[in-house]
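quick one if you have a minute, typing this from the bus. below you get a single protein, a line of residues and a line of whole numbers that encode the local backbone shape. could you go over both lines and see whether the tokens make sense for that sequence. anything you notice is useful, everything is just below.
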Amino acid sequence: MSEHRIEFHLSSGFICGGKACSGRQIVNSSQGKIEWNGQSYSELLFEPANPSQDIFELSDVTIGVNFHWERKENQSFMGSLKLIVEGDKITAINLIGIEDYLTSVISSEMSATASSELLKAHAVISRSWLLAQIQKNKEIVESKEAYSTMQETEDELVKWYDREDHTKFDICADDHCQRYQGTTKASTGKVREAIKETWGQLLMFDGKICDARYSKSCGGVFEEFQNCWENIHYPYLVKVRDSKTITEIPDLTIEKNAGEWILSSPEAFCNTSDKHILSQVLNNYDQETVNFYRWKVEYSQSELFSLILQRSGVDYGDILDLIPVERGTSGRLVRLKIVGSKRTRTIGKELEIRRTLSKSHLYSSAFIVEKVMGEGEIPEKFILKGAGWGHGVGLCQIGAAVMGEKGYKYDEILLHYFVGASIEKLY
């Protein structure tokens, strides 16, 4: 969390600057420093004397940042608490070991009551993704080359969002990276057993840790990495049907095929409405979204104009059309042209499109556009009909949950979503 003022509570046993401290604490940001107990600091570190027992609680942590389920909650954590200054705010950082971190991530990303095989699969996924990102960041720093996640001209904005946004810590605790909500969600022995049984196991390909992405629902076909982030093709993140019974895939980069696919409801592991399975995969606030495999959003002309202006800062005038320019392997839009009465511009990649066309994030960029015309030449309404929830790259959480219920083992689940990869124990 990053705020001007942070309130937290320490259990007995924490040490800061060689002194014991406990109970309610408040820090404030002031002139580039952290104010605490009447003194100013560049940074503060609170370390537990007994790491297996001591916990700290942060008040009013925002979760689901910029998503429709955004809210605040108090969260408890093990490990150390480090406070630093970033800009005019204080950032709270939890220093914790990988396996303890994963115990919370698995429960935060899903329900801790999910099937054992799904929990084990997710342990390997989350561990692999974390270590791959740390390694990637080291390589970027060591290369000393400029790294950019945006390409912009007058007529086009292509931008992607990844963990390189963070430079003062490894990863954030929200949907931008992986949900990590501390001991608040690390609630069952089942989760701890999944961590224990997969301890040190990583997804590997050609001697390197896999960049193991995952999302809620692929919509029936996996997306490829380069269509969502930088232009790198990973052989293990390729288009595959989310099914074992039907393997053929229409070419969804072709507009006609994508439209037919999105308007249908093809067989797939993630095509389920089984509440028992969904309750295992989705936390309570995720279940506020009921339509994820296929969905529909409608905007009036004034709603869409205001939304795009607010989200992009660009005044397109009346929105005349939304034209697909490029689609990925799952039918997700990689580039979309916004045609306005004042300006026309192409935007991408998938998350930039989702952010521009929703108050939070559109469920996915796999959608088609239907215009409802009025008496004039300006559309009165735009209807977006779409497929899937999230970027669709790598493991499909709902599909994996269904596979777990059907009796697939965690290694079978992983190798279904990460083609040609292997599972290796590195520590």
Observations:
- The chain has a mean pLDDT of 91.
- The two ends are 31 Å apart (CA to CA).
